[in-house]
Amino acid sequence: MIDYKICIPTYKRSHAIGNKTLSFLEKHNIDPEKVYIFLSDPDEREVYEKVISETRYNKNIIDGRKGAGGNRNFICDYFPVGTNILCLDDDVDDIIEAVDKKTSVSIKDFEELIQTGFQHTILAGFNLWGICSHNNPFYMDKQVSYNLKLIQGSCQGIIIQEHDDFLYRVFEIGEDKEYCIRQYIKNGGIVRLNNYGMVSEFFGVGGLYEWGNPPARVSHAEYIGVWRRTW
Known about the structure:
Layout: E1 5-10, H1 14-17, H2 21-27, E2 35-39, H3 45-52, E3 61-63, H4 68-78, E4 84-88, E5 92-98, E6 104-106, H5 110-124, E7 128-131, E8 144-145, E9 155-159, H6 175-187, E10 191-193, E11 196-200, H7 214-229
Parallel strand pairs: 1-2, 1-4, 2-3, 7-10
Antiparallel strand pairs: 4-9, 5-6, 5-11, 7-9, 8-10
C-alpha cells in the first residue's frame, strides 16, 4: 500500500467542511491520522476547532498561508520530499464514477482511487495526478491520460519534489491551471483518471478564491493563455 496524506486547505468554510469534505472522508473510513487541515487565516482557528472537534478529523489543524496559491505552496513545503499528498477542497460532496455516457454513480472505495492515482503517477515517473475536471459522464471515459489536461485544485495528488521555484504557484485565481502547466513543463506529463469527477459547491460562500478579485481573475487568465501559446 502506498502511504499518503490528505491535505485540505480552507478559508471561511467552517460552516461547510464538517458536513462536506470531512463527512465524505468519514463515509470512506479514511484514517484521521492521514488528514491535515490547513487554515488560510489563523484567526479562524477557534471557530474551525469548534466544528472539527465534533468529528474524528481533529488531530492535525495547521496554520497555513493566505490565498489559494499561497496555501497550496505552503502545503507542498510543509512535507518532506517524497511524501504523497492528496489535496482536497473543503466543500467536497462526493466523487463520482461514470458508468456510461449518461450515468454516473458515487465511488465505492475512495482508498482504491487514491492508490490507483499514485500507482499510475509513480509508474509514469510524474508528480501530479487528478481526476476529470467536470462531472458530466458524457465527457468522461475510462482512459488514463498523461498529456496536458486540467486537474482542478479540488482533487490533486502530488508527490513532493525537491524545492524548485519554478513549481511555485504565482496566481491566486486559476492557480490550478498554472500548476498543471508548470508540472507538465517540468516533468513531461501529468496523470488524469478521466472516469472520475468531483461533486462540490465551487462558488459557495467562502473558499480560498475569496482572496482574489475580478481584475486579478482577468489578468491571470490572460497570462496563462499567453504562456500556453508560447511554449
